[in-house]
Structures are given as structure tokens and as C-alpha cells.
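Quick one, C-alpha cells below:
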């Protein structure tokens, strides 16, 4: 997640307009991500593979058009000269392909609640990956959150009769994706990053569409005008929340972004339970409750750490 600029004045000195704008951008981004299952369900009878393939190609087209309109090709050319960044974005593209395909499959197979679980546990998985990959040291409260989440997965595995593999694939693929994006840091903005990632994936997406067409399963332009319009909107549906997120992250502290990120899985959960009427036996409620407790512990630790850092900064000599 991109880091916000370090403030040079107390939070109270921040203009109300900027704060409200950042909140609007953040809530809009995560709300759009939260309602993605509804969009994918509206694309039936298109299958997950075709949806993801079109999403890749149309996202690339949308990004290219946006770059052309804003005349920001220089940023892409600068990144293309950095071989390490280009290769890193290729790995990021592979991870986001796995994430997208799993998510679309979950949405179209009546498993939206499990997809929501994946994004609820993603912050905890990210903390866990920080220990395994970056050798970071966790606080006792962070270890507590990780331990509770492991118990939650065990309870949910009992409730589902299997490991909640959709949730785990979503959480770990997006967790590793976040680590990779952290390595490239602010050098790669949201649109440039998505452009490089989809450019890497474009040949595979085109090949997938050829395979789908050869089996007679291609639906683009064959269902209805409304369906075709929705499918053609896949590029904008992918890129617009990313742009809103990038705008929010430049205006809000990470603590705000940390709270608002739960909008998306919460909306997905509500859609799955109340709209799609997915089953929620007692074991799943217990598992989700444990996940929410773990997130509460993690959030408390985050807020406490942020307050301690602010106090330490205020005591430093000017």
C-alpha cells in the first residue's frame, strides 16, 4: 500500500477539504471493490476464464488510453528502462492473475462469503508474511492476532468440511502482491503498475480467449447489448478503484487507510449473506467472529503504535 506523505503540521491544521476528499476517495475505492461480486454475477453466462482474460486486455487498453490522454508516456518509458522493475511487475502480474481468477470463480460459484473472508484475513496474512519474508519482528499483540486467525481458519475448515482454500489463495496471493509492490515503492504509480502487469499478461489472456473461442464458449457480443457493454466496461471497472485508492493514499494517513480497507470485505460479506443467501452455519459465524477479534487486536496495536510514534515525534527538539 502506498505511504502517505509525512505531515509537516498537526492533523488539526489539515484543511477540511483535503481530509474530506481523501475520505471520499478511499470509501469510494473500497466500496467499488466491495460490490465487484454483483458486477461479475451480472456477466453470466460468461465464465471466469473469459472474464479475467477480457479484464486483462481491456484494462491494458484503458490504461493506454489514460496515459495517452494525460501524456504520461515518459513515466512508462522510464520504467521500461529499469529491467528489475519490469521483471518485478511481471511477477506481480502473475500473482494478480491468480487473485482475479480465484475471486471471479468465487463470485460466480456462490462463494462470495469465503472470498470476503480472504480479504478480512489479508491484513493478518500480510503481517505474517512480513515475518517470513522480510524478517520483521512482531509485537506480542500482533502474534496474538496471528494465533487467533490460525484458530479461526481451523474452525472454518471444520465448518466447511475442507480448508477454505479460496480465502487462503486470495489472502496469500494479494499478500505477496503487496510485498512486491512495496519493493518497487513509489517509483511505480497505480496506472503505470497496472499497465506493466497487464502488458505481461496480455499474451496469455489472448491465448485463453482463443482457447475459449475454439470450444464455442466465447460470449462477447453473443448474449445482449447490455451484457456486451458490461463486459467492455471491465477495464474501467478494474482501473477506476485503483485511481481512487491512489488519490486517497496521497491524502490520508495509513491508519485511516487501514480502517477503511475493511469496507470491501464487509460489503462482500453482506452481499453474500443477505443478497445471495449463502449458508452461514454456526461454525462459520464462530470462525468469522474469531477473524474479527483478530482484526480488532491488530487494529488496536496499529493505533497504539501510531500514537506512540506521534508522541515521540512531538518530544523531539525542533
Amino acid at each position: 500500500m502506498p505511504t502517505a506523505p509525512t505531515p509537516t503540521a498537526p492533523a488539526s491544521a489539515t484543511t477540511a477539504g483535503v481530509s474530506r476528499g481523501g475520505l471520499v476517495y478511499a470509501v469510494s475505492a473500497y466500496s467499488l471493490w466491495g460490490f465487484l461480486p454483483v458486477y461479475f454475477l451480472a456477466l453470466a453466462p460468461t465464465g471466469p476464464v473469459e472474464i479475467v482474460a477480457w479484464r486483462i486486455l481491456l484494462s491494458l487498453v484503458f490504461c493506454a488510453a489514460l496515459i495517452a490522454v494525460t501524456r504520461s508516456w515518459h513515466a512508462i518509458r522510464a520504467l521500461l528502462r529499469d529491467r528489475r522493475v519490469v521483471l518485478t511487475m511481471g511477477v506481480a502480474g502473475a500473482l494478480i492473475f491468480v487473485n482475479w481468477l480465484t475471486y471471479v470463480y468465487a463470485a460466480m460459484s456462490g462463494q462470495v462469503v469465503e472470498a470476503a473472508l480472504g480479504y478480512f484475513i489479508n491484513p493478518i496474512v500480510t503481517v505474517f508474511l512480513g515475518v517470513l519474508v522480510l524478517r520483521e519482528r512482531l509485537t506480542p499483540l500482533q502474534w496474538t492476532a496471528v494465533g487467533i486467525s490460525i484458530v479461526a481458519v481451523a474452525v472454518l475448515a471444520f465448518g466447511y468440511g475442507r480448508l477454505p482454500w479460496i480465502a487462503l489463495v486470495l489472502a496469500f496471493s494479494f499478500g505477496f502482491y503487496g510485498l512486491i509492490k512495496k519493493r518497487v515503492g513509489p517509483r511505480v504509480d497505480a496506472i503505470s503498475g497496472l499497465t506493466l502487469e497487464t502488458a505481461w499478461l496480455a499474451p496469455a489472456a489472448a491465448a485463453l480467449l482463443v482457447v475459449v473461442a475454439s470450444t464455442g464458449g466465447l460470449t462477447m457480443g453473443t448474449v445482449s447489448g447490455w451484457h456486451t457493454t458490461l463486459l467492455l466496461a471491465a477495464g474501467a471497472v478494474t482501473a477506476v478503484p485503483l485511481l481512487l485508492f491512489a488519490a486517497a493514499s496521497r491524502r490520508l494517513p495509513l491508519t485511516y487507510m487501514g480502517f477503511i480497507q475493511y469496507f470491501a470485505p464487509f460489503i462482500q460479506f453482506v452481499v453474500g449473506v443477505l443478497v445471495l443467501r449463502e449458508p452461514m452455519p454456526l461454525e462459520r459465524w464462530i470462525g468469522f467472529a474469531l477473524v474479527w477479534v483478530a482484526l480488532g487486536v491488530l487494529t488496536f496495536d496499529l493505533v497504539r503504535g501510531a500514537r506512540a510514534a506521534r508522541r515521540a515525534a512531538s518530544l523531539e527538539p525542533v
